[in-house]
Amino acid sequence: MPGSIKDRVAVAGMGCSKFGERWDASLDDLIVEAAYEAFEDAGIEPKDIQAAWLGTTTGSTGMTLSEPLRLQYIPITRVENACATASDAFRNACYAVAAGIYDIVLALGVDKFKDSGISGLGDGSIPGPGHGMMAGAAGPPPAQFAMLATTYFHRYGLTYEEGKHMIARVSWKSHVNGARHKKAHFQREVDMDTILNAPIIAWPLGLFDCCGVSDGAAAAIITTPTIAKSLRRGKEPPMFVKALQIAMAPNDGNFNTKFDYTHVEATVRAAQAAYKEAGITNPREQISMAEVHDCFSITEAVTMEDLDFSARGKVQRDIEDGFFDLDGKLPVQPDGGLKCFGHPIGASGIRMLYEMYNQLQGRADRMLIPGKPSRQIKNPTLGLTHNLGGAPAGCAIFVGIVGLEGV
Q: 133 vs 188, which has greater pLDDT?
């Protein structure tokens, strides 16, 4: 349809580094690790790339990407949009192909935090007036997202025990899934009692309700549908882009009395726009799987309602019933999500797409840890990815939909 990117571009290859505390690798090493997996997967060489988009919060210019890959003298654009950084790099690369400017481009996201000494996210404080995360008014991220939990529990009548168990099960599910993936940061299942009794970080969020800090990179080769089919002839099919939407929230949640702290309106708006672009009328039934921004367990729970996967105030039932489990009706975080796969901010959005890509191609078990049950979702056709960059009170939201041809 006019104004839609649906089926106008396709992904012919993807790559992803191992995520985690990568003391063994430099930023350049991570870039090469992800990019060359993508090149090999697509059956191309670096010289075939006509332009590239780099998502990172720690790099400087496009030379952060051009130097390790020897991509000199082509246009490379550095993108930064908080936790939506990689998704926005992917989005810009897709639009360039859809516009007919380039035939084959690269989108790559990377961040390397551990060598910098970062042990966790700070409060983001900067001098000057204002409210919200960037002014540190509501405290560090755990405190700001904890407000989603306390307000949600109150609004929908959940006792502390009920609410705590709901969000603990979100983390439990992520650990079950992440423990099966060779490239995940955290590869150990954690029982419910351990999660429920972990030290409190920002009440009611405990240690296992919070994602960690990781190093990692992920890459995508984006091209036209015709070229993608040619490159993947005799292989698994390419992944088609169905919708790409970004919404900026008004940064007023900490002083707007109408801000209810039980949902994120920008996610609702971005999701509605994405569903319209992709022609989806019943996301709970039509979406096969999702990777959402579970920076904290409550974020995933609230996002299920914002994406219209669960009815308002009813996500507890779906979580406890296993609706979002790997073998449930709508698997969420099949690779463990930010919580267990890891969260190098500049890479996470493309890492989510990497999981959708492998699931759609039926090859998710290539990344299976030996001896673990299958990771492969049965007959997926559409996948959704979601990022929240910032805090509930003010954020950048990405919602993308990808799938098989003709869906």
A: 188
User: Does pTM top 0.85 for this prediction?
Assistant: yes
**pLDDT of 253:** 81
Q: Give the CATH fold of the 10-115+215-231 domain.
A: Peroxisomal Thiolase; Chain A, domain 1 (3.40.47)
Q: 138-211+238-403: which CATH topology?
A: Peroxisomal Thiolase; Chain A, domain 1 (3.40.47)
Q: What is the pLDDT of residue 134?
A: 44
Reported confidence tier of residue 352, pLDDT bands at 50, 70, 90: very high
What's the confidence (pLDDT) of residue 1? 56
pLDDT value, residue 120: 58
Domain regions of the chain by residue span: 10-115+215-231, 138-211+238-403
Query: Among all residues, which ones are annotated catalytic?
Result: 83, 343
Q: For every residue of the chain, which 3-state class applies, written as one string? A: CCCCCCCCCEEEEEEECCCECCCCCCHHHHHHHHHHHHHHHHCCCHHHCCEEEEECCCCCCCHHHHHHHCCCCCCEEEECECECHHHHHHHHHHHHHHCCCCCEEEEEEEECCHHHCCCCCCCCCCCCCCCCHHHCCCCCHHHHHHHHHHHHHHHCCCCHHHHHHHHHHHHHHHHHHHCCECCCCCCCCCCHHHHHCCCEEECCEEHHHECCCCEEEEEEEEECHHHHHHHCCCCCCCEEEEEEEEEECCCCCCCCCCCCCCCCHHHHHHHHHHHHHHCCCCHHHHCCEEECCCCEHHHHHHHHHHCCCCCCCCHHHHHHHCCCCCCCCCCECCCCHHHHCCCCCCCHHHHHHHHHHHHHCCCHHHHECCCCCCCCCCCCCEEEEEEEEEECCEEEEEEEEEECCCC
Equal fold, 10-115+215-231 vs 138-211+238-403: yes
* Per-residue model confidence (pLDDT) at position 252: 85
Mean pLDDT (the chain, rounded):
93
What pLDDT is recorded for position 131? 36
